[in-house]
What we know:
The protein has 18 helices and 24 strands. The protein is α/β, with parallel strands linked by helices. It has a 6-stranded mixed sheet with strand order 6-9-10-3-11-12, with helices on both faces. Strands 18-21-22-15-23-24 form a 6-stranded mixed sheet, sandwiched between helices. It starts with a helix and ends in a 9-residue tail after the last helix. Mean pLDDT is 86; it is low at 1-20.
Amino acid sequence: xxxxxxxxxxxxxxxxxxxxxxxxxxxxxxxxxxxxxxxxxxxxxxxxxxxxxxxxxxxxxxxxxxxxxxxxxxxxxxxxxxxxxxxxxxxxxxxxxxxxxxxxxxxxxxxxxxxxxxxxxxxxxxxxxxxxxxxxxxxxxxxxxxxxxxxxxxxxxxxxxxxxxxxxxxxxxxxxxxxxxxxxxxxxxxxxxxxxxxxxxxxxxxxxxxxxxxxxxxxxxxxxxxxxxxxxxxxxxxxxxxxxxxxxxxxxxxxxxxxxxxxxxxxxxxxxxxxxxxxxxxxxxxxxxxxxxxxxxxxxxxxxxxxxxxxxxxxxxxxxxxxxxxxxxxxxxxxxxxxxxxxxxxxxxxxxxxxxxxxxxxxxxxxxxxxxxxxxxxxxxxxxxxxxxxxxxxxxxxxxxxxxxxxxxxxxxxxxxxxxxxxxxxxxxxxxxxxxxxxxxxxxxxxxxxxxxxxxxxxxxxxxxxxxxxxxxxxxxxxxxxxxxxxxxxxxxxxxxxxxxxxxxxxxxxxxxxxxxxxxx
Length: 521
């Protein structure tokens, strides 16, 4: 039935009638080239008043290019754009906003040196004879933040906000004026469940007012919760438009062009000697107060918990990125509590951070340089003060092939790769030197199902080769299906250690909200 609906929609070029709302947007034959690459090829897309239309596809499929055209950030090479039944040409983001089209891009567009209120109304400030109306600006900012339920102060400087708080500011910018079309690109990637609920409640309210929402996500539960229709893109082409009740299996088939029988691989666990151990670990900033855990070679250990539980802070403290105030860290039996990240790398410990843009990659340099950055001091890539550029090229091309980097060009600027391929470049860094302990912090944030499958297989292969793996994830299915043992955290302490049949959704969620620590034997 899903295939029949998809074919019918494609053939007619019109949305199915059961939604019954008038068209806000109607894009016909949109094409866009970038440096000889065809990013969009004759794509049709429509958005109705009062619906959430999900854009779905692998990284690099053309989703971001399509919304950037709707948002006015890019102009198509060909095609027609109708807004409320009339042909239009959108020349800029500002022009789009005058039409009521606001966009929350995945990559933030905030000015760190400015306050929240200044960022919210940048370019749209109220003034009187050239003098800013600061009190009016602050009142409007407060009104927008309160409407969204975000606990932020308008006069806070953006540079000092967490990534989740910056995500809230980015979302708030879209709600500063009257809306006709709201475009959201992975808006919940850094939000807690409560903040996500607040956003979805607001989306439902705007739908009742006739606002159309274009929503990009890779999370199936979000599609089920708020989606009305789904348009699937693959390699710059529109594959189908289907109703949101389509099965997950059918969506994956449409997106990838293949059947994925099992998203998660079968992994052989053969636990050997202990590689990482913490005893009563606490950090100076109070994010971790009392954590004891261990990870053995030949197993994947999960670290689960809600946002703010301290799970990422444990790994950062072990790696030397956060100061340890109490307790001990042991790597392969040796005490390393005061070690630096450089020392930990030299001992075979590699930490893959959650934020690839700010901590993992050099976005304006080529992929080769990002891949080898953590290994430049090794004999394989340098001799004294001289870098072995030829060896860099040879090795990074081999790694790019292993990880199926697309396009297979390690001289390409990292910024120009899709999000999923940027994540592959981040993972490639840990293959440029000898590593015995891998810590993956939210390794699949913002990547599509096809890339997830590749990352899961990669992690499984590392474990089966005898490495110790610590997987930190807010994605519960990853914890359930990939791990041999699981530690659950809440408020900076371990509330449970689970293994075997104990690793289930009910128990993990139960201990995510349990505030007291438990004794781990």
